[in-house]
Amino acid sequence: MANSRSTNALKCELLGIIVLLSASALVFGKIHYSIPEEMDPGAFVGNVAEDLGLNVRKLTARRFRLASADRRQCLEVNLENGILFANERIDREELCGPMPACVLSFEIVIEEPLEMYRGEVEILDINDNSPVFPESPILLQMAEFIAPGSRFPLESALDPDVGTNAITTYKISPNEHFGLKVQSAEDGTKTAELLLETPLDRERQSSLQLVLTAIDGGNPHRSGTARIIINVLDSNDNAPAFDHKIYRVSLAENSPRGTLVVTVHAADPDEGPNAEVSYSFSNRASQKVRELFSLNATTGEITVQGILDYEEANSYAIDVQAVDNGSPAIAGHSKVLIKLIDVNDNAPEILLTSVSGTVPENAAPGTVTALINVIDRDSGENGQVHCQIPKNVPFKIQTSSSNHYKLITSGLLDRETVPMYNIPVLAWDSGSPSLSTNKSIQISVSDVNDNAPRFARSSYTEYVMENNAPGASISAVTAFDPDLDQNSYVTYSFKDNLIQGSPASTYLSINSMNGTIYALRSFDYEQIKNFQIQVQARDGGVPPLSSSATVNVIILDQNDNAPVVVLPSSRSGSATAEVVPQSADQGYLAIKIIATDADSGQNARLSYQLLKATDPSLFNVGLNSGEIRTARSILEQDATTQSLVILVKDNGQPRLSSTVTILFSILANVTETFPESSNLVTNPEYFSDLNLYLIIILGSTSFIFLVTIILLIGIKCKQDRNITEDFNSPSCCYRLGDSNDTFNRGPALKESLNYTGAGEMARIPETYHYSVCLSPESAKSDFLFLKPCTPPMSQAQC
After folding, report:
1. Residue 520 has what pLDDT?
2. CA-closest candidate to residue 226, choices 287, 166, 170
3. Spatial separation of the C-alpha atoms in residues 213 and 228, rounded to whole Å
4. How many Cβ atoms from other residues are within 10 Å of residue 377's Cβ?
5. Residue 13: which region, alpha, beta or left (left: phi > 0; alpha: psi -120 to 50)?
6. Under a CB-based contact definition with an 8 Å cutoff, are residues 198 and 148 in contact?
7. Which of 269, 530, 585, 648 is most buried (most C-beta within 10 Å)?
8. Three-state DSSP class for residue 559
């Protein structure tokens, strides 16, 4: 029955309202109250009856009641006294969020006569929330060589209070490197940036810890803190820099998912990985922003991914960062301010009526690559559309007719630089505010043969050991052609090269497929030490393109030649004969061995060694000079014939050697007139082995003949001892040197003898003459003493 009466009463009220509206008899008014948040349930708000001048006693009769749009019924009115009171504890942050003004609207309705009054209760903020940092500690990485004056944005604290109770300032703990810069954004929020005042030194201090304090403006003040941990690192020294410090964008509230909001771009002047930039939201971006917008890490395009509602929030501030790929990474920061506006609800549509998909890289500017039709279902000004593409691509949009466009080339293309373009086409209408949409057109660049093969180096140097195996690889050259498919197919060949007057193909071959060079024969360092060839790389394009590179081949010596004894020379392994006077002292140069080696370097460095000797104590050999000298004075009991075997070896690996056998004949008391062999220098190129043999044989024969004559003369003089007066003068004197009695070492050597390394040149005298006489001492002894005749002395006297 009560429900029935209420329904009937409501119908009567509506009928009464209609009547009153028709009669323009309704009375309207508006009252305003202000109360602080967090009041207890039942707290007094205002006396509505008194403020409206109503008779309290008639409130019930006139069906005094409260009509509120608040579903939560935060307010209630006492029907008996007209007092408006809080029905529950009101939290302004929960009720209105970040909005600066929080108002609860209500209506007071009374009947008989029907009157309606509007009222509002403003919920005043109290400082009941402390600033809170979303993340603590805040981790920062900084390169040690960042210049003073650099700023580093810090994560802002959150305080749901508004007005003077919101965050008003930030403070940082005292330190020697950093100060704090507090700035006010356009929306009134406070942000803090670290300001580097003095340079950092990682070797002195690798990390710093600071305390950041956020303070609100309430009374009393509330604050929140966060630790800042700064790691000082050695890294790349340039942070990515955005084109704009702040990007300002207006966006329709009904923008569909995927709508491009803005494309942020940051450039890093570093090179390589340190210049590769990826984009992301910074830590200061709220979770709500992350739900509504997405940021392409590669292109920097910020697009819509959620449903926007102007009534919920009319603007968004997005903190974005660009992080390079260095180690450690450095980030640059920017802010995107998005303003939502109520606009027409139809965005333009981009239709690709024709897309070629592929364009040759030598296409002339103006070549049509796609036909674009942009339509908008709206009409009038909202249906007028515009179209554009980024300016950093070699393409442009050209208007064909109403809402029809052509995508044409506007610059030169190079497939080797950019093989494919993903061109974003942006279309927007002329509505207020304007709606836009975008679409990407993928254009592939086809290859033409516009690049010749390029060698890694213009010149190659290869070292090849002599006596190499024929068919072995000695080098490999590689040329790269940045073209595609057949245009990049490279073949290798020799150009017209000559090696010692013969074509290079008689010495070398080259694999036409991979550029490997093979030796067709074994090289001999003693015949050829180096040569140079030209290798040509030719691609398979039409027409073909080619380039060449130089290959320098250097033959390395191998110890493949044994030393050759030049002096003294011997034939068929027979020993050579030399003469040494018996009176030779220690250190007497008997002969100098000269040997050569066809190799070079260490392989031709020779040393001499006494391998075998009749008397090892009589002679020694210079290790490097090859000089054979007496190690001591010659004694009478020493054998008159000494045989020495000399080993000559090089310094190669393995060592090669040769031997020479020398026979020394020791002559008694005739050393004064023999020139030392150290003064004889022979040139192996002109010295005759036959002449040397003849000299040795003739000298030996003359020596034996002289000894025989001396012995005979001594015997004769011994038999005539009674002729004593003749012993006081040189009566037995013989002149050696006449045509019959001359001691001749052999025919005169007219040539200059050249010993390699001796550094001396000498002539051998044509004839050696010796005049000897019997000494007076011969009469007093059983021995025969000879002495040189003192000129002038005639042959008759001798």
Report:
1. 84
2. 170
3. 10
4. 13
5. alpha
6. yes
7. 648
8. coil
Of the candidates 212, 153, 194, 113, which has an alpha carbon nearest to the alpha carbon of residue 335? 153
Spatial CA neighbour of 150 closest among 407, 360, 331, 347: 331
Query: Average pLDDT of the chain?
Result: 77
**For 535-577, what is each residue's pLDDT tens digit?**
989 988 888 988 889 899 988 888 878 888 888 876 545 567 7
Residue matched to tokens 């139809």? 346
Instruction: Please write the tens of the pLDDT for every residue from 730-761.
Output: 433 333 333 333 333 333 333 333 333 333 33
Locus of tokens 């609100």: 216
| 3-class state of residue 637 by DSSP | coil
Residue 275's Cβ-count burial label (10 Å; 0-12, 13-18, 19+) is middle
In this prediction, residue 425 has a pLDDT band, given cuts at 50, 70 and 90, of very high
Coil/strand/helix, residue 175: coil
- Region class of 298: left (phi > 0), else alpha (psi between -120 and 50), else beta: alpha
> Are 395 and 389 spatial neighbours (Cβ–Cβ below 8 Å)?
yes
Nearest to 221 by CA among 155, 167, 181, 163: 167
Q: Are strands 349-355 and 420-429 parallel, antiparallel or unpaired?
A: unpaired
pLDDT tens string 569-607: 765 455 677 888 878 888 888 888 888 888 888 888 888
> Going by C-beta distance under 8 Å and a sequence separation of 6 or more, which residues neighbour residue 174?
none
Q: Give dist(CA 252, CA 269) in Å, integer.
A: 36
Average pLDDT on 4-22 reads 35
Rounded to 5 degrees, what are φ and ψ at 93? Answer: -65, -35
> Which tokens sit at 19?
């009547």
Return d(Cα 743, Cα 772) in angstroms, integer: 12
| β-bridge pairing 331-341 and 246-252 | parallel
Look at residues 156, 94, 127, 122 and name the one whose alpha carbon lies nearest to residue 35: 122
Instruction: Answer positive or negative: Cα dihedral of 152, 158, 161, 165.
Output: negative
Interior CA angle at 334 toward 329 and 337, to 5°?
150
Phi, psi of 56 (to 5 degrees): -60, -35
Alpha-carbon distances of 308 from 16, 254, 258, 316, rounded to whole Å: 42, 6, 12, 11
Domains annotated on the chain, with CATH: 2-124 (2.60.40.60), 138-233 (2.60.40.60), 241-341 (2.60.40.60), 349-446 (2.60.40.60), 454-556 (2.60.40.60), 559-679 (2.60.40.60), 688-798 (no CATH)
- CA–CA separation, 735 and 718 (whole Å): 20
Residues 6+ apart with CB under 8 A from 185: 191, 317
Contact call for residues 590 and 626 (beta carbons, < 8 A): no
What is the C-alpha to C-alpha distance for residues 546 and 452, in angstroms, rounded to an integer?
Answer: 5
Backbone phi and psi for residue 51, each to the nearest 5 degrees, phi listed first: -70, -30
CB neighbours of residue 671 within 10 Å: 18
Beta-strand relationship, 479-480 and 454-455:
antiparallel
**Cα-based torsion angle of the residue sequence 170, 172, 177, 183 in order, rounded to the nearest 10 degrees:** 0
DSSP one-letter string for 667-726? ESS--TTSPPGGG----TTT--HHHHHHHHHHHHHHHHHHHHHHHHHHHHHHHTTT--GG
Helix (DSSP H) and strand (DSSP E) numbers for the chain: 5, 54
At which residue do the structure tokens 């690709």 appear?
352
Show Cβ contacts of residue 788 under 8 Å, excluding neighbours closer than 6 positions. Answer: 672, 770, 771, 772, 773
Q: Quote the distance between the C-alpha of residue 144 and its chain's center.
A: 22
